[in-house]
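User: Can you fold this complex?
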Amino acid sequence: SQQGEEDPQALSIQEGENATMNCSYKTSINNLQWYRQNSGRGLVHLILIRSNEREKHSGRLRVTLDTSKKSSSLLITASRAADTASYFCATDARGPRVSGNTPLVFGKGTRLSVIA
Amino acid sequence: SAVISQKPSRDICQRGTSLTIQCQVDSQVTMMFWYRQQPGQSLTLIATANQGSEATYESGFVIDKFPISRPNLTFSTLTVSNMSPEDSSIYLCSVKQGNTDTQYFGPGTRLTVL
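Assistant: Here's the predicted assembly.
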């Protein structure tokens, strides 16, 4: 079952603008990971943020995590047409399984369109 | 990062037949995961495959329909049995890099059932 919900479901922006996508989840987590998927192909790992971290950066990407609100955001700055893709958050939930063997549970994704 | 390959990359199959998807990883991993992504949807976990033991299936998925093999620490197969058009999806294998918890995905197998 889906753990997370992304918001918005679809986002269309002009090249050069910033894009912000949000993710909410339901249970306690070990970490949260963001992925990009182009046109139904494989998933590209973007960034992992652990439950004890509040913010991480990677190039033009900035991810925040608020465990009290069970939410995360992905900001892409100075967007490019090549950023057009679907973006998914996925949570590595705490639970009875041994840490490291817990599979990710995915949100529904945000479809981002960057118009040149 | 782990490098994962899948075969075939895509296939078109007739209903009632079966397809076996192969997943090869460039390093030894304890757990491999198989996901399904139906058209326009997100990823749903099918099962977790541990080397040397039976796979653990998620609710809604059964071994008779999706038998999994895990003969060694770098390879796994997923079979989609007795296919129907509802099985048309992208099937992805995935592994965790143990020391970072990062989960990597293969390129996926796009299956169309007619």
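The mean pLDDT of chain A is 89. The radius of gyration of chain A is 14 Å.
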